[in-house]
Amino acid sequence: MTSLAKNYRRRKISFKRGKGSFLYSSKGKKYLDFVQGIAVNSLGHSNPNLNKVLAKQSKNLWHVSNAFEIPEAEKLARKLTKKTFADKVIFQNSGLEATEAAIKVAKRYFYSIGQPQKNRILCIKGSFHGRSLATIFASSAKKMIEGFGPKIDGFDHFKFGDHKSLRKAITKRTAAIMVETILGEGGIKVIPNWCLKELRKICNQKKILLILDEVQCGVGRTGKFFAFDYAKIKPDIVPIAKGIGGGYPIGAVLMSKKVASGIVPGSHGSTFAGNPLAMSVGIEVIKIILEEGFLENVNKQSNYLWNGLKNIETKYEGVTEIRGAGLLLGIQTKMNNEKMSNKLIQKKLLCVPAADNIIRIAPPLIVTKKEIDKALQIIDLTFKENL
Ligand code: PLP
Fold it and tell me: 35, 103, 129, 217: which to mutate for ligand 1, most atoms within 8 A of CB?
């Protein structure tokens, strides 16, 4: 009998060791891990550089209050602002904290310029921005909000891909449009580049802010630092998390100078966020991801994986769609995704379901051609047996 509450349907596998793209179960079985904490371990398991940095920092200093300067946080923020659209950063500890902070930053900006009535956030119905009370109502998916009333106000919604309903939903009270550049939990639905450009244009016309949630798809996962980089646009606010910590819990909200002007001491904070231990790991992750050739290799491997999956798609009528970008991909088949995931896991390939009957795969950014070949072989064989 477990003492853990049942907020997850956990698989009956546990792991005692991980190395790169592989996990080793407590029963001694070796799994190819194409989940990686759901796009968290960007550099795979037990990365030697991260281990070294973590061990070194742990001997010096773990935690100090944000009431003092934290040079490690300064350094990571400087690295992020130097390489991106952002001028300012607030660190957090998780994705939901980052998205919730993004919402606060948007509201606070309009308050600070004397337009406090502009305080509503327009989101895609059924998107995923986290599990706090505010972010579940940002999604408004029935299964997420059920039992958690009263409703948290301040969110309006439009349907994915429905541009008419998006334009109609913008009112004088809208402060920002917030969308995931790639809807992860929602079933690896990629917002196309032309659409992101259009979103930017609409936000400019209406003088509202664009928040792009890159918690799952950001930090190199698509082969560029941000997924929206392909559209060559600049959002106003971007929450990130997952990949930036390489397995250590870090979140961050990145923002332009303009919107950061609304943030004053006391308007937002967190006890743990930006601590030296987390920041040291984050600095190393970003250093590695931004090293010359790293993202090019992500592109190379992801093209190889994509082509392999498309090849499998042509072989089986039961494969209905392959979608996604970079190393965040979704496979849809005629079989239930939970069942198919189980079959793949039985053959030692870890994957995780997402909405819309999607089997989601998110290998580490350091995945090799040989590991991709192994994964493709398992997928091919599993589909051959079941589709
Ligand atoms: N935003 C997006 C796009 C996500 O995919 C997730 C988590 O999967 C979150 C926010 C919430 O992140 P966390 O689970 O770290 O709170």
Answer: 129
